[in-house]
């Protein structure tokens, strides 16, 4: 099963007082991954929002293994480990330029009705769009 793969660069504004990538940057990178996943399955965020559905987060966990520094090239791997009717669990791995694991993360997302903020089930067709990225 395919994983979503993309590369990122570390810029000066990603660096904290300790000289490495700040923990909040990983959350931003995870958001980039979620947007890329929605685009890859043919459900870009702007279209989903226009249809009255909002993808939201209900949980984020990150385990840091190695620091990333200014000038590092970061490879991100993303896939789904769980896909339910209105929610999904997304897995992330962040590798440095030497392909060493720098961090791994997990997020649980939920599709909600943008007006009521109540969970909104994906149609069978929509769920099928995500299955190529599902690895259990």
* Parts with pLDDT < 50 across at least 5 consecutive residues: none
Number of domain modules: 1
Order of helices and strands: EHHEEEEH
Strand content: 35-45%
**Overall strand count:** 5
- Which structural class best describes the helix and strand composition? alpha+beta
What spatial form do the alpha-carbon principal axes imply? elongated
Q: Going across the major beta sheet, what is the strand order?
A: 1-3-4-5-2
Q: Number of helix segments?
A: 3
How many angstroms separate the termini?
10 Å
Task: Give a topology summary.
Elements: E1 4-9, H1 23-40, H2 45-50, E2 53-64, E3 73-83, E4 87-95, E5 101-113, H3 124-130
Characterise this structure.
This protein has one domain: Roll (Thiol Ester Dehydrase, Chain A). The chain is built from 3 helices and 5 strands. The chain is α+β, with helices and mostly antiparallel strands. The chain has a 5-stranded antiparallel β-sheet with strand order 1-3-4-5-2. The model has no long low-confidence stretch (mean pLDDT 96). The termini are close together.
Keywords:
about 140 residues; alpha+beta; Thiol Ester Dehydrase, Chain A; elongated
Give a summary of the structure in a few sentences.
The chain has 136 residues and is α+β, with helices and mostly antiparallel strands. It is built from three helices and five strands; from the N terminus they run E-H-H-E-E-E-E-H.
């Amino acid at each position: 099963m395919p994983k979503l793969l993309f590369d990122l660069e570390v810029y000066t504004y990603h660096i904290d007082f300790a000289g490495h990538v700040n923990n909040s940057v990983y959350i931003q990178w995870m958001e980039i991954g979620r947007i890329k996943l929605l685009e890859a399955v043919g459900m870009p965020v702007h279209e989903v929002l226009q249809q009255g559905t909002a993808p939201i987060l209900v949980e984020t966990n990150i385990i840091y293994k190695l620091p990333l520094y200014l000038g590092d090239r970061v490879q991100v791997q993303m896939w789904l480990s769980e896909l339910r009717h209105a929610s999904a669990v997304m897995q992330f791995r962040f590798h440095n330029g030497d392909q060493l694991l720098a961090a791994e993360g997990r997020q649980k997302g939920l599709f909600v009705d943008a007006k009521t903020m109540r969970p909104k089930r994906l149609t069978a067709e929509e769920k099928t769009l995500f299955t190529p990225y599902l690895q259990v």
